[in-house]
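Class prep. Write one:
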Amino acid sequence: MEGLKEKLKVLAVARRSRPGPEEPVYLLDAALQPAGLLAVSCSDFTVRLHNKDTLTQLGQYRGHGGPVSGLVFSHTTPDLLYSGSADGTVRGWDARRPGTAAVQVFRSDPPHSLCSFDLSCGDTLLCAGTEQVNDEDSFLVFWDVRKTGGGLLGVYSESHSDDITQVRFHPRDGDRLASGSTDGLVNVFDLSRGAEEEALLATCNGDSSAASLCWSGADSTQLLCLSHDAGLHLWELRHLDTEEPLVVFSTSDARSATPPADGGGVDYLVGGRWLEEARKLLVVGGRSSGELRLMECDGGGLGLLSNLGGGHTSTVRCFLWDAAGEALITGGEDSQLLLWKPGGEEFTSGRKESMKSESALRNESRPHKRRGYQREQKAGYPSAT
């Protein structure tokens, strides 16, 4: 395999999907289906379906009544797409029939606004993190995907005290779960142990509100946490039962730790992703003007791989690496969806001017902010098993 750095250095925009004449929307999150579909969540509460190679929009799904807080395709049934929302639901959509109603709907009891969710690698469990309730409680809610009627299993209620902004199942162990919150804590669970107290394996302090989590490392034993104020922490979880340090690399402000490119570092971090083929942890940061910095992260800190310009015109909110197509996909607050390929040349000329504005979009599209969607009083949750 050709070196990752050499590939990323020659990335250029190959395709660009521009918004229509309707009100511009932020592109918030994206999920990739190996068969060729790309799902994108938008700040108007819709989920759009695209061809991943051409970025042609194939349709969209409507049904959520609040901001969409995440997307994931089923691992074993790739035609099934899940989306979670602040409206208190996780919905399953048939990717073969864009525009149709949800084929599955999962709710908690009572319903609470969902900030995050994920699906286990074996497609058996859904887990969602809720907003803080009654100024003191937040919940990890679990459903059995295989059961009809929602399959609610129960909740964990003691591990976080504020909005649970991220939940991430281990890519190969369906019982291993990590959760991050605006309370600054990142928890790791072994769900096979049952009750919450026994299932909690470790609590790592990120010192600031957790924005995203990513399992990484050759055996997925490391966990990356990025905070909303650009903090970065990489932990080695194999050391949980040893005297070895958990911290692989940590900085409270990655903006000061990122290597400069063309005279500038980054203004924010977009996210991280473990690239299995290259055996590298990719961290993407950006400038408010739209430029991107692609970096690798290891025990030595952050190293610059590539600097990408000429694409976005404002903040980038999501990215994916398509290993099969050797392409980077990005979406952002300028309403644009971009496909970057080595040596790519755009099929259309020109680029879109910034559509970023101080509109309600900014408030609607940040799932870690409290919006109060369907807030209910705390009521008798069972224990998750």
Summary: The chain has one domain: 4-364. Confidence is low (pLDDT under 50) at residues 348-385.
